[in-house]
Amino acid sequence: MSAFLSKAILDFFIAFGIVIGGAMVGGVGAVISLQPPTQTMLDVADRIKIWALAAAVGGTIDPMRVIESNFLGGNMSPAIKQILFLVSAFLGAHMGSELVKWVCGGKE
User: In Å, how far are 1, 6, 83, 86 from 19, measured between CA atoms?
Assistant: First the structure.
């Protein structure tokens, strides 16, 4: 498997796992603090998506710097790869959020 595809799959599942794990642990915290766990899990899953995306691609500034430097330098291939890594991580975070909504029965 190519290095590009391996990293894209890894970014997807890292973002997916962060959203699922964060929502589950948030639900446990809600139970301990006597709050409704399903609503807490839905809230956490929506709020943590952007942080899951940032963590999956390795930070918030470096991927943007790669895109900028390569795009302005006329070298499109690394910039396009970085954008595809961001899309892969976004899809993972979104799929995790949708799974939490499905399991909790959320209609948002």
Answer: 26, 20, 21, 16
Taking the alpha carbons of 14, 19, 102, 30 in that order, is the dihedral positive or negative? positive
Cα 41 to Cα 92: distance, rounded to the nearest angstrom: 17
Q: How far is CA 65 from CA 17, 56, 98, in A?
A: 26, 16, 30
Q: 68 vs 3, 54, 73, CA distance in Å?
A: 22, 17, 8
Q: Give the relative orientation of helices 3-32 and 37-47 as an angle to the nearest 10 degrees.
A: 150
Question: What confidence tens digit (pLDDT) does each residue in 25-62 have?
Answer: 999 999 999 999 999 999 999 999 989 988 888 876 77
Q: Six-digit token pair at 8?
A: 């894209």
For the record, the structure tokens of 43 come out as 């809230």
Average per-residue pLDDT in the chain?
Answer: 87
The answer to whether the predicted template modeling score (pTM) of the entire model surpasses 0.85 is: no
